[in-house]
Amino acid sequence: MRARNIKPGFFTNEELVECTPWARLCFIGLWSMADRCGRLEDRPKQIKMKIFPADSIDTLELLDELCGHELVVRYEVDGRQYLYIPGFEKHQTPHYKEQEKYPACPGFNGNGGGANPGPKPDHRPKSPRQAQDKPKTGPVQTPDEPPLNPESLILNPESREEKKATKVAAYTQAFEVFWAEYPKKVKKKYAFSCWKKIKGVDALVIVEAIKAQVAGDHFRGNDGKQYVPNPSTWLNEGQWEDEIKSQTNGDDELPPELR
To answer: Which residues fall in a compositionally biased region of kind Acidic residues (predicted)?
Structure first.
């Protein structure tokens, strides 16, 4: 386990505050298991023994939650599963003697981004002679070389749309039907990760349940306001099994002689 830093912004990060406390603690533990580039093996049992040795915790569910919020990325190289923390190199400063232990994640070349940031700076201490001999010249540009265009650093908009279309195509048809019926549309990717964890339940049952709850005013409280949970919460808690609230008023439920 390696020493890592926790910045104050960790506690107010928009994605992290949506995670459960156990998932946040797991995220911190992954930093100390990762190599200098933020990579580690995707081995839930080993991760549990190193982060939660005395707790009854399902580490696989915590990793699914972190991946659903894009805080951790799963990938495979030569048949082996790995995890990558995209923001690791941006927020951590590993010891200069640490080595890259695991293969790179496809699509990421460091510093949590897709663009190659160039060679990493050498943080090793230098002798006074090395510091003195280092040339103090700026970047050299040949006369035939065109000036750098800042717009060339921006990703092609078409490639962004293609990437977005690829992600959308990953949703199943049954989930899209559920999503169309659910009255509160937030955190779709995380909701889909919760949907995939549901086993042994017909998708039609879930869809019909949300239709009935919406039609039956199921989410309206006693004060007349709507209280609709996030779709991920509704799925995780199995709320499709909840009894539909009655639409009748309290007086209608009383016997005639007591009205």
So the answer is: 250-259
